[in-house]
TrEMBL record:
Cellular localization per UniProt: Cytoplasm
Source domain of life: Bacteria
Keyword RNA-binding carried by entry: yes
PANTHER family for the chain: PHENYLALANINE--TRNA LIGASE BETA SUBUNIT, PHENYLALANYL-TRNA SYNTHETASE BETA CHAIN AND LEUCINE-RICH REPEAT-CONTAINING PROTEIN 47
Protein name: Phenylalanine--tRNA ligase beta subunit
UniProt domain TRNA-binding: residue ranges: 40-155
Regions that span the bilayer: none
Gene: pheT
GO cellular component, one term: phenylalanine-tRNA ligase complex
EC number: 6.1.1.20
UniProt KW keywords: Aminoacyl-tRNA synthetase, ATP-binding, Cytoplasm, Ligase, Magnesium, Metal-binding, Nucleotide-binding, Protein biosynthesis, RNA-binding, tRNA-binding
Oligomeric form and interacting partners: Tetramer of two alpha and two beta subunits.
Major enzyme class: ligase
Single GO MF descriptor: magnesium ion binding
Amino acid sequence: MKVSYKWLNEFIDLADLNPQDVGERMSRTGIEVDGVEALGDGLKKIVVGHVLTCEPHPDSDHLSVTTVNVGEDEPYQIVCGAPNVAAGQNVVVALPNSRIAGNVKIKKSKMRGVVSQGMICSLEEIGYANSVVPKEYADGIMVLPEDAVPGTDIVEYLQMDDPIIELDITPNRADAFSMRGVAWELAAVYNRQANIETTDTSKYEGKDLADALELKVADTELVPEYNAYLVKNVKVGPSPLWLQLRLMASGIRPINNVVDATNYVLMANGQPLHAFDYDKLANKVIETRLAKEGETLVTLDEVERKLLDTDIVITDGEKPIALAGVMGGLDTEIDENTTNVLIEAAVFEPIHIRKTARRNGLHSESSMRNERGINHATVAESGAYAAELMHELAGGEIVEGRERVSVIDLTPVQVSSTLTYVNKRLGMDLSYADIEQIFAQLQFDIEGDGENFTVFVPSRRWDITIEADLVEEIARIYGYDKLPSRLPSVNAVNMGYTDWQLFKRRTNDQMLANGFNQVIGYSLTGDNQTVLEMENAKPVALDFPMSDDRRVMRTNLLSTLLEIVQYNVARKTADVAIFESGRVFKWADAALPVDETHLAAAWTGHAASKTWSHPAKVVDFYDMKGALEAVLDSFNLDVAISFEPASDLPDMHPGRTALVYAEAKGQEPVQLGFIGQLHPSIADKYDLKDTLVFEISLEKVYALPKVDVKQSPIAKFPGSERDIAILVADTVTNAEITAAIEKASKGGILVATEIFDVYQGEHIEDGKKSMAYTLKYLNPQATLTDEEVTADVARITEALINDFQAEIR
């Protein structure tokens, strides 16, 4: 919110204070100030000018040659390109050697051979934003009022020396979203009296608008208060300059005297208003309700909006004519032909307003206040204030009466606390007199006996409802800088890592040792950006996302990892190996979502770079499998890890994908996750070549039984090795053969089984493959005998023949 310092001084006397100091003081008491700056800072030698003559340029079809009275003895000749320049106008003139916005220097020059002694400026060229320039001057120069005196400094004339305090209002302090609110705040901070003038509403009370209007409120929970005022015979035209300047300083574009009156009240009181062209109401009915399915509304920005049943709408008894609290409809717009105006001053349920504004992208000064809350005590008064302004500015005749529906209770909220509670939270030793003084500055009534007290919170501070809120008010008005600084007293505790933290750190360390780089992906993703699901998880959607691309919480890690791989590959990083250990989110049967910690990795490019002696090796399934096995082995799990082929996982290559299982003795296998190569169509979607991925649940791994590792002395006795080669069907996996070998071996003397050759091709029949293994034997207690090893190899051979119809080679 932008606050005009000169306007603010009408609500509270701050003439003796430096605006910069006021901004700093506000920041230290709870309302952040982004900056304090006058729009005219840096402008030099810019004055009011009166155009005496205006002739077409002899060598241009869009330039004009003017003579301009700038308050000096002789007029200046200035070439101007504005399409709306004309003789008899008062305009903004930058003299030779002047400085306009952006520190641009204007010099005497020639334009198409004609001397130009300066420049006739638009409002943008002297520093105003295009969004606040009146539409009639948006593509040209501004025409100043007839009473403007040539030669007057434009900074003074347009009040551009007025310091503008830009506030960053947080949702909990929406009470400061108005000139009144800021004045109340500064009155408390500086212990001064705010000058808040109110509008007399007595002439409207007890009277209605008779047959002029019928007001219907379908649901008072959605619309707890609605006031309608009628002003007749207005003359729509431009607002006076003082009003336009105040609105532009506040960041609002002037429209006309009727609409500007509602915006002026909005900034002054913080109450959103809307003006309808009364004669465009077909049935002379105002009805508030929820939109019906299939209804549409063309809003003031000329966009047709499809309405949902969560949108509160204002109707004429039949069709919608406005999105309540957000934007009016085009059909009832105030225009130059309007003569009778109906003023709306209402309170709408904030959540519905917020949803409507976000869905339609209609964030305005009005919708922000309706979303965050308004002062219920000044709703009716603000409508009456706008009617008085329309009488003053547009010559309207006020109908002394109103239509009103209200169920709002304006009884002050009572919040009780104790001196002990306050001092304990603040670490202070405040007295009851100190507390009384602070609430006197806030102009809150207080009752108490020295220890216990009750504060009566007025409706203008709807953010104060609990005991802790009182403590916050006391602290910020007393001064955060006055609170003592000391370290809290704490008992010594074991500050080491928990088992779970050590487990996660070990996981990360092992992945780093494997050569992967750790990344941290975004936890939010889009509805249609999820791939590589471990299971059919229901995503958790945000009620109010920042954008559609970040609407849901991620249900897996690989979706974001692939985006990171794509980003790097697109920037010529061909070899990418990354991992993340983080949380994923999903809905379960519980009332709240659940989260789980996963480990995921993605690898594309080469597993080994090209050297003088070896060619580069493209990463394959077994490289990624080795990395995952290294991680699982580091946990010393007392389980059997197995990889079972899977051909039905979405987004994965059907022939190069496996499910990862862990099986403890006497228990059912637990699926930890999956590993494999991306399906070619998914790889193409991300502009990737062959890419390997895996994702497992770390929490499932953490829950598995583990082996206590004990160091054993090096065996004193020699071991023995035997090689065995078999011919089996090509559907038999190495894991199945290894498991069969370990099961068949007896006596505990087989310590390792290693595959050293796999062959298919010439001299091997179709559908078969040759596999060769080295069996390593060792007895740490005695020297092995040839008979023991031979007998064990015979048992293994027999098992392989029986289980796989293997042919011993």
